[in-house]
Amino acid sequence: MKLDREEVKHIALLARLGLTEADVEKFREQLSNILENFEILKQVDTSGVPPTSHPVALRNVLRDDEVRPSFSPKEILANAPREEDGCFRVRAVLE
Amino acid sequence: MASEYDLTVHEAHDLLKSRKLSSLELTKAVLERIHRVEDKVHSFVTVTEDMALTQARQADENIKAGNLSPLTGIPALIKDVMCTKGVKTTCSSKMLSNFIPPYDATVVERLKAAGMVMMGKGNMDEFAMGSSTENSAFFVTHNPWDLDRVPGGSSGGSAASVAAGEAIYALGSDTGGSIRQPAGFCSVAGLKPTYGRVSRYGLVAFASSLDQIGPLTKDVTDCALVMNVIAGYDVCDSTSVDRQVPDYTKSLVPNLKGLRIGVPKEYFVQGMESGVEQVVRRAIGKLEELGAEVEWDVSLPHTRYALACYYIIAPSEAMANLARYDGVKYGFSAKEAENMWDAMEKTRQYGFGPEVKRRIMLGTYALSAGYYEAYYLKAQKVRTLISREFAETFTRYDALVTPTSPTVPFRIGEKADKPLQMYLSDVCTLPANIAGIPGISVPAGFTDGLPVGMQILGKPFSEETLFRVAYAYEQAAGWQKRRPNL
């Protein structure tokens, strides 16, 4: 699978990863090479095989809806890059 | 007596118990060792000297009062991917270089309750993505057996610190081999438990269906002692399994009579170094001498698809897990930005290193419209086949034995920027994560002075069998007594 530069830029946009032009070229090469190696999976007959998303067959894990202690806003906001009045400060979503 | 920093957990415990040594003396000896060798090895992102001394004094109080558990007062290193309350937890990433968690991971909480003296946080490949610790955003960790070589990864700081005497034991995490491969490279014991055996609460997520926490120790007895404390159900991790934890030290018996062991030929892969193969085959011969019935020609044909399967699934899960790093709630945040989207892109551009970006891109691609079925869904189906093949094989064998890695520790820089070559370093270890089964690496000897690890795999929740094989081998071979010259 060969990727072109536009595809690399599109993936970066989906992942919200800023890339330089040099990054785009490097990732194009490296990712193409890696994806080419993944072609080997096409050799495996998986017809009728269910997918595994998880190694342990768990059902939904539920607990009683009880009030338990949680972190204070102060503790949680201690790592916030920007905060204001006990809230995370974010940039405008709609401009 | 050997220097205090060279002691194992159980040797140190015996001395603490008989009051021939205090935790404070032991802790100071390890701190002094850190000060002497750390500029060569670079195992630590953070050394928590004051906390260690406080905890050691507390441990000595407890010992005086008769409260002594097998880990009380013993110095440990925690890989910097596990949250430690009030102590920076960086994942060796610029993204989290200033992150101070408000809580302890469950494993840390359990070790603290068992009397741990925490020496600090271990260097690693950024977000546990890598096999050499060269992907740390801060510095490279060096292999104590040869400082020009890598310690393996991603738990390179954990493995190197134990080998170098900078910690008596360590915790690592293993998503595709990140405990076992560095354990092999640094000639220490390292266990990846069955998925669900140890709580992941407070482990910064890389690939949630593959990640497990486990011990890296100087010998197999220590490994069992640490597992006795960290294993078990945790209400905070809904994927941890509610199942009784045995006393793992009970499985440490020095013979293998009646045990059926298989040697899967696919693990002696093309490109395997002949020195490694020789060492491992000799070690397997030892298992036969110890009474195991060894079948030398077992086949698990789907093994050859494991690498591709893994490197689709792990990055797919990683891209979702790492979406949380948006520069808003915690961690690095780009200051100069035109708007919200620009801020997010710049935060991730400058906060993540190249390998993390590569995997986010891979995962995003594998999950994107038009490719999901060909890549992600296909890999999940192959995962089923690999798991079934293990399950079927374990009806005939109690354990499988393989090399831990196809090579000895490679030179620093040798595989940097060659991602595929680096990925191959995990080729023997990642099938266990795909299937969720346990695996342990034990020192199997040396080739040209460089460590070689032997991996033992078993069915889910067969850690006792793994400990038995590993212990019997270790006692017969004696490699665990060797220490690097630093």
Task: Briefly summarize what is shown.
The complex is a heterodimer of chains A (95) and B (486). With 95 residues, chain A is mainly α. Chain A is built from three helices and two strands.
List the helices and strands and how they pair.
The complex is a heterodimer of chains A (95) and B (486).
Chain A (H helix, E strand, L loop, with lengths): L4 H10 L6 H18 L34 H5 L5 E2 L2 E2 L7
Helix pairs in contact in A: 1-2
Chain B lengths: L8 H9 L5 H19 L2 E4 L1 H16 L10 E5 L26 H8 L3 E6 L33 H9 L4 E6 L5 H7 L2 E4 L19 E6 L2 H11 L29 E5 L9 H16 L3 E6 L7 H16 L18 H12 L2 H14 L5 H21 L5 E5 L15 H6 L5 H6 L3 E9 L2 E8 L5 H15 L9
Parallel strand pairs in B: 2-3, 2-4, 7-8, 7-9
Antiparallel strand pairs in B: 1-3, 4-6, 5-6, 5-10, 9-11, 10-11
Helix pairs in contact in B: 2-3, 5-6, 7-15, 9-11, 9-12
Task: Please tell me about this protein's structure.
The complex is a heterodimer of chains A (95) and B (486). Chain A has 95 residues and is mainly α. Chain A is built from 3 helices and 2 strands; from the N terminus they run αααββ. In chain A, strands 1-2 form a two-stranded antiparallel sheet. The longest helix of chain A has 18 residues, at 21-38. Chain B is of the alpha/beta class. Chain B has a domain at 4-258: Alpha-Beta Complex (Amidase signature (AS) enzymes). In chain B, strands 1-3-2-4-6-5-10-11-9-7-8 form an 11-stranded mixed sheet, with helices on both faces. Chain B starts with 8 loop residues before the first helix and ends in a 9-residue tail after the last helix. Chains A and B meet through helix 1 and helix 2 of A and helix 9, helix 10, helix 11, helix 12 and helix 13 of B.
